[in-house]
Design a protein that fits this description.
The complex is a heterodimer of chains A (about 250) and B (about 325).
Chain A (H helix, E strand, L loop, with lengths): L1 E5 L2 E3 L21 E3 L1 H17 L3 E8 L4 H10 L3 E6 L6 H15 L3 E5 L10 H9 L3 E11 L2 E8 L2 E8 L2 E5 L11 H7 L4 E5 L11 E7 L8 E3 L2 H11 L4
Parallel strand pairs in A: 1-4, 1-6, 4-5, 5-11, 6-10, 7-10
Antiparallel strand pairs in A: 2-3, 7-8, 8-9
Helix pairs in contact in A: 2-5, 3-4
Chain B lengths: L3 E4 L9 H17 L3 E7 L3 H7 L6 E6 L8 H15 L3 E5 L2 H14 L3 E5 L1 E2 L4 E6 L4 E7 L4 E5 L16 E5 L10 E7 L12 E5 L6 H14 L3 E4 L1 H5 L20 E5 L5 H4 L7 E6 L12 E4 L2 H17 L1
Parallel strand pairs in B: 1-2, 1-4, 2-3, 3-10, 4-9, 5-9, 12-13, 12-14, 14-15, 15-16
Antiparallel strand pairs in B: 6-7, 7-8
Classes of the chains: A alpha/beta (about 250), B alpha/beta (about 325).
The structure holds flavin-adenine dinucleotide and adenosine monophosphate.
The site of adenosine monophosphate has 21 residues of chain A, from helix 1, strand 4, helix 3, strand 6 and helix 4.
Chain lengths: ~250, ~325
C-alpha cells in the first residue's frame, strides 16, 4: 500500500501571530515553524496503516520553498519513507496546491491520500476535498477513525450532531481531525535514518500545471481587540450583574 | 444571468439556523451586486422543506431531486450542484460553513474550476471578501476571480433571513448524476442525543474545560448550571480529547464557532484556538482559579474562584432568581 501525505509548513500553533503594519503578511522573525498539526496526525495515521499491514510506502509531498525541507525531514524522521518538495516562490491558492498534488498522485499512483483537514495558517479546509474531486476519488473528511480491510476503507467522521461512518473502496482521500491519533515523536535513530532518505526537489514550473491563483490575498489586518472587563468577587455578585446589569438572566 | 445561489442545507426536513444565516448572507450579497438570490434544496422528497425555504425572501427555489441525494454525500451533491450551477449561470455559490458546507463546497469549487473563500465574515468593497486566518489573529481581505466564485460564510457573522410575505416559486429539477461516479457509501450516523439547545443556535452557551477534570463532573457540576440557564453546552478541545464530552461540543478554531449573547467559560484557560471560536460573543464570563488565565483578557466579567465551589453557588442563585 502506497500512501501519499501532503505536508505543510506552518507557524507553531503556540506562536503569538503579529500582522505587519503594512498589511502584507505576518511578522516571521521569532516564529518556530512546524508541520501543520493536522498533517502530523496524517503522517502518524499513514505510518500506522503501513505498520498494521506489514508493508507499504509513505510518501510526503509539499509545495513550498527550500526551507520546507526541515519539516519534511521531521516527517521522514517520524518514519515516512521519502519526500517530494515542489518548489514555488509565488503564492498559490488551494486550487493550485490541489492541482499540483493531483499531478503528483497521477505520477505516484498512491492507493490512499491522508492529509490534514485544515492548515492552521490559512484555515481554509479546502485542499483535500478539491484533490478528491480532481482525481475523481471518494473523500472522507474530518476522520476520527480509519479502518482498512483489503481494499475497503471505513472512516468515522466528526460531523455536526454526531459521528458519521463512510465506506469506500480504495483509492480515496481522507482528511484528519484532532481525535484520530496522537502523533509520535521522531526518535534519535529515526532522525539519523531520515538524513539518508530521499527528498526530491522539483520546480513547480516543470509540472505543466496551471498555477495562476484565482484567489488573491490583498491585505491582512489585525482584528479589533476585545477589552478585558472587570472581576467580580463572588458567584452571587456574578449572577446579580448578569441579571440586573447585563439583563441576560 | 448572474445570480447568487445559496445551498440551503436541511436536516431531515428541518432548517437549522445556519441555513437561515446562509440565506441572509446570500440576500445581502445579491443586494450588494444588484442581482437575485436563488436557493437550492437538494434531496429526495423535499417538497415541504423547499416550500419553507421559499418563504425567506429569495427570488426562487430550485428543488434538486434524485434518489442519490437522499442523504448527504459529497460526491453526489457536488456532481448535481455543479450541473445546476452551469445551467443557471450563477456568479456566486454560497453555503454556511457547517460540517456539510465545509465538506461539499471545496469539492464543488474544484469541479467548477472556481476559487473558494472559506468562513467569510463580511463582504468588502470591489468584490473583496473578508475572512479570518491564523486562528482569528488576522483578518484577510481576499479577491476571487473567474466567472464562478464559491463561498462559505461563518454563521455568527450574518443575520438570519427574515420570513417574507410572499412565497417564491419553487421549481423542481431532476438532478444530473452519473451513478458510476458515486464511490462513497454512507454506512451509519450515530447521533449525539441531547435535549438542550444546539450550540450554534443558543442564546447562552456554558462551556467547560480541562478544569472540570472528568466527564462525571461535567454531569454533576456543569450541567446543572447549563440547564438552570437554559443554555447549550460547549467544551474546550482538552475536555473533548479527554473524552469528558462528545466531539461536536468543541468550540474553537477547528471546532464550532459561536457568538451567543452570553458565553460562560468554566475551567478553560483561553488558548488562542479556543478564543477563535467564541470571542465574538456579546458578553463573556470566565470562571477560573488562576487569575493570570488568558481567558480573563477577553472576559467582561471574571470570577477568580474554584469552579467546584463557584458553579454550585451560581446554580443556587440562578434558581432563586427564577423563583422570584
Ligand atoms: C491544531 C490545534 C487546534 C486546536 N483547536 C482547538 C479548538 O478548536 N478549541 C479549543 O478549545 N482548543 C483547541 N486547541 C487546543 C488549545 O490550544 C488548548 O490546548 C485548549 O483550548 C486548552 O483547553 P482548556 O482550556 O480546557 O485546558 P487548559 O489549558 O489545561 O486549562 C484548564 C484551566 O482550568 C483552570 N482550572 C483548573 N482547575 C480549576 C478549578 N478547580 N476551578 C477553576 N478553574 C480551574 C486552570 O486554571 C486552567 O486555566 C487546538 C490546538 C491545536 C494545536
Ligand atoms: N503548500 C502545501 N503543501 C502540501 N500540502 C498542503 C499545502 N497546502 C495545503 N496542504 C494540505 O492541505 C491540507 C488542508 O489545507 P487547507 O485547505 O489550506 O486548509 C493541509 O492540512 C495539507 O495537508
Amino acid at each position: 500500500m502506497k500512501i501519499l501525505v501532503p505536508t505543510k509548513r506552518v507557524p507553531d500553533p503556540a506562536t503569538n501571530i503579529q500582522v505587519l503594519p503594512d498589511g502584507s503578511g505576518i511578522a516571521t522573525e521569532n516564529i518556530k515553524w512546524v508541520i501543520n498539526p493536522f498533517d502530523e496526525i496524517a503522517i502518524e495515521e499513514a505510518l500506522r496503516v503501513k505498520e498494521r499491514l506489514g508493508s507499504g510506502e509513505v510518501v510526503l509531498a509539499a509545495i513550498g520553498q527550500q526551507s520546507w525541507q526541515e519539516q519534511l525531514r521531521t516527517g521522514l524522521a517520524m518514519g515516512a519513507d521519502r519526500a517530494i518538495l515542489v518548489l514555488s516562490e509565488s503564492a498559490l491558492d488551494s486550487l493550485g496546491i490541489a492541482s499540483v498534488l493531483a499531478k503528483i498522485a497521477a505520477d505516484e499512483q498512491p492507493d490512499l491520500v491522508i492529509m490534514g483537514k485544515q492548515a492552521i495558517d490559512d484555515d481554509s479546509n479546502q485542499v483535500g476535498q478539491m484533490l478528491a474531486e480532481m482525481l475523481g476519488w471518494p473523500q472522507a473528511t474530518f476522520a476520527s477513525k480509519v479502518e482498512i480491510k483489503e481494499r475497503r476503507c471505513t472512516v468515522v467522521r466528526e460531523v455536526d450532531g454526531g459521528l458519521e461512518t463512510l465506506a469506500f473502496t480504495l483509492p480515496g482521500v481522507i482528511t484528519t481531525d484532532l481525535r484520530l491519533n496522537e502523533p509520535r515523536y521522531a526518535s534519535l535513530p529515526g532522525i539519523m535514518k531520515a538524513r539518508k532518505k530521499e527528498l526530491k526537489e522539483v520546480p513547480a514550473e516543470s509540472l505543466g500545471v496551471d498555477l495562476t491563483p484565482l484567489l488573491k490575498v490583498k491585505e491582512l489586518r489585525a482584528p479589533s481587540k476585545r477589552q478585558a472587563g472587570r472581576k467580580v468577587a463572588s458567584a452571587a455578585e456574578l449572577v446579580s450583574v448578569l441579571h440586573s446589569e447585563a439583563k441576560l438572566i | 444571468m448572474s445570480e447568487v445561489l445559496v445551498f440551503a442545507e436541511h436536516k431531515n426536513g428541518h432548517l437549522p439556523k445556519t441555513t437561515l444565516v446562509a440565506l441572509g448572507a446570500g440576500l445581502e450579497l445579491a443586494a450588494k451586486y444588484g442581482t437575485k438570490c436563488v436557493a437550492v434544496v437538494a434531496g429526495d422528497g423535499i417538497e415541504e422543506v423547499a416550500t419553507r425555504v421559499a418563504g425567506y425572501g429569495v427570488a426562487a427555489v430550485v428543488m434538486l431531486e434524485h434518489p442519490a441525494l437522499k442523504n448527504y454525500v459529497a460526491d453526489a451533491h457536488a456532481q448535481a450542484l455543479a450541473a445546476l450551477v452551469k445551467e443557471l449561470g450563477v456568479q456566486f455559490v454560497l453555503a454556511s460553513a457547517t460540517a456539510v458546507g465545509k465538506d461539499l463546497m471545496p469539492r464543488l469549487a474544484a469541479r467548477l474550476g472556481a476559487p473558494m473563500a472559506s468562513e467569510v465574515v463580511a463582504f468588502g468593497d470591489e468584490g473583496t471578501l473578508i475572512r479570518p486566518t491564523y486562528a482569528g489573529n488576522a483578518l484577510a481581505t481576499v479577491e476571487l476571480s473567474g466567472p464562478v466564485k464559491v463561498i462559505t460564510v461563518r454563521s455568527t457573522a450574518f443575520e438570519v433571513a427574515a420570513p417574507s410575505e410572499n412565497a417564491a416559486p419553487v421549481r423542481k429539477v431532476d438532478a444530473a448524476i452519473d451513478p458510476s461516479a458515486l464511490k462513497t457509501e454512507l454506512v451509519s450516523f450515530e447521533e449525539t442525543k441531547s435535549e438542550r439547545p444546539q450550540l450554534t443556535e443558543a442564546r447562552i452557551v456554558v462551556s467547560g474545560g480541562r478544569g472540570l477534570k472528568s466527564g462525571e463532573n461535567f454531569k454533576t457540576v456543569l450541567e446543572p448550571l447549563v440547564d438552570a440557564m437554559g443554555a447549550a453546552m460547549g467544551a474546550s478541545r482538552a475536555a473533548v480529547d479527554a473524552g469528558f464530552v462528545p466531539n461536536d461540543l468543541q468550540v474553537g478554531q477547528t471546532g464550532k464557532v459561536v457568538a451567543p449573547e452570553l458565553y460562560v467559560a468554566v475551567g478553560i484557560s483561553g488558548a488562542i484556538q479556543h478564543l477563535a471560536g467564541m470571542k465574538d460573543s456579546k458578553v463573556i464570563v470566565a470562571i477560573n482559579k488562576d487569575e493570570e488565565a488568558p481567558i480573563f483578557s477577553v472576559a467582561d466579567f471574571g470570577l477568580v474562584a474554584d469552579l467546584f465551589k463557584a458553579v454550585p453557588e451560581m446554580v443556587e442563585e440562578v434558581k432563586k432568581l427564577k423563583q422570584s
